[in-house]
Amino acid sequence: MDREHPAWPSPRSWEAASRLHSAGLDIAPAVGPGAASEFRAFLKSWAQLPNLNEVLQGHTPPLPQELSARYAATIGLAGLVNSPAEVARGFRWLKPAGEELLAFYLFSLIHRAPTLLAQAAQQESELGRLLSRRLQRGFKGAGL
Fold it and tell me: Core-most of 24, 86, 100, 105, by most CB within 10 Å?
């Protein structure tokens, strides 16, 4: 325990932090300055995320600027897809972000929804080519 900052993140202190946050107050007194700083960074990234369900419906909001928010959006899309069409819409929306995020999206889908990914790859030729290339050479170099 730090004499300067006696608060530390525990389940009970996070419950108190939730009440403080809901009231618009600083959570550092409940969980400590380090955890509070990380929470503020999370909120900043969260605020940049578009409505991912809208992306899967074919809307094209701007990509988040911050890399951590882009990764959060990528994994969020992979977790939400329910059809090959949604897989393809997520792919098209992420395309301007570059191959690293696209590879991360494909890697995530291989683990979460391989059948949907395979069906989407048959329907969306560019997605199919990237998936084939990544499966042949691996996902190294994409941060994976």
Answer: 105
